[in-house]
Amino acid sequence: MKWNKVYLKLSLTMFSLFLVILVLLSMVINQLFSNFYTKKAHEEANELALHLSVMLRDRIYAVETMAEFSEASIYLVNGQGQFLDMSASTKQKKIQAWPNVWENAQLLQGKQIEKEFTAGDQLYLLHGIPVHSSKNPVIKGIYVVSSLEHMIESIRSVRYLIGLAGFGTLLLALGCIFILAKKLSAPLVEMEAATRNIAKGELEVRLPVRSHDEVGSLSSAINDLAMELKRYRDTRSEFFANVSHELRTPVTYLKGYANVLTHGLVDHEEEKQQYLHIIADEAHRLTVIINDLFELAKMEEGKMAFHLESVDVRRAVEKSVNKVRIKAEQKGLQLVSALETIPRCFVDPVRLEQVLLNLLDNAIRYTTKGTIKLTLQQENGFGVILISDSGSGIPANELPYIFERFYRVEKSRSREFGGTGLGLAIAQKLVQLQGGTIEVESAMGQGTVFRLSFPFV
Ligand code: ADP
């Protein structure tokens, strides 16, 4: 049996505590009953002795009868300290058998005597009371000796009952404590098994949440952990599949066209130039993907340094707009801006520009005709930048996924435009790491609006 089990430790602790309480309580009860019985016996004997001493003053003969009824023995003492009227031989014997018990001298001095003594293996109570009787001048004192055996018997039976009740309670407590401890520790055992399974990679494990206390919330925390790990594992595998796919495509082109060229399978110079262009494009594409991936990895590991400072967002937006103006005009698009003067925001100017250029690039890329509009305004302590276009729009069912790595709405079309599917993932990460938010709204055929917000300084 393994002793380092929670339920055993819990049971043992609770049981020991219970045992200590029970023993203390039994001791107190025992003491209370002992005191009660002893006091009662003393009171009864004392009362009897007093009663007899009063009776002795007038009717000496009734005393013997009285003593017989009360199961006590009486002994009379004269002025010389000798025992009187001890005709019954048993009494005489007792007087001789208990030589050190009598306190005649004290009694004759008028003192009351009360003491317990043991003779044989019995306990007795002795009361001595001085007597002053005009009718019986010979009698100077009376001893009443009563056996305390019946009192001891009563205490013994009380002790027996306490012991019996204690033993019963102890057994009951042991059972209850054991069941309770097992019940309390059962979820912990389940959790231990579940976490070990999670560590082995079984991420479908779910624990039942049976209560709303700390144990219940620990179970649901373990469930959340398993779910989060599963999501992480799934997205990681998906991510690696995407990475290898994205890298394989340009590499296949590179290999293919390089082969054609090395084997001299081109008919004329123009064709050769065309292939060389494709090779250069694909090589560039590979570089972009690798750089993007590297940037994302750095951000996710928290290794990308941000230099947050107080920035005039209006100027930053104007700078980005100027950078993409030619590109937009070349495509025949109108680029307009409505920029309010707002308080300075706490951002990294280089990263803010990177995000703006990325969103503006996308807007130009996915818009064939119309306008691209930039708006800057303030809302509830935040600087808000809106980048709206009149492009193709994004289908509502795809909208929730566009910030995922490698997610592209129209796979082939985006590739055609030179997209990697990493731009928005990077933009979102950059915005979040600067304490801002990025949201998107889109209507098919009408256009898309990206909304950035950053806190003021
Ligand atoms: P990509 O490099 O392919 O543009 P992004 O992460 O920047 O990757 O964008 C993800 C996808 O979201 C794109 O493939 C595109 O389909 C869609 N998208 C992004 N911006 C716009 C926009 N302004 N209008 C329409 N679709 C967009």
UniProtKB/TrEMBL annotation:
State what protein this is by name: histidine kinase
The way it spans or sits in the membrane comes to: Multi-pass membrane protein
What main location does UniProt list? membrane
Presence of keyword Cytoplasm: no
Highest taxon of source: Bacteria
State the organism named in the record.
Paenibacillus farraposensis
**Keywords from the named record:** ATP-binding, Cell membrane, Kinase, Membrane, Nucleotide-binding, Phosphoprotein, Transferase, Transmembrane, Transmembrane helix, Two-component regulatory system
A molecular function (GO) term: ATP binding
- Catalyzed reactions: ATP + protein L-histidine = ADP + protein N-phospho-L-histidine
Give TM regions.
12-33, 160-181
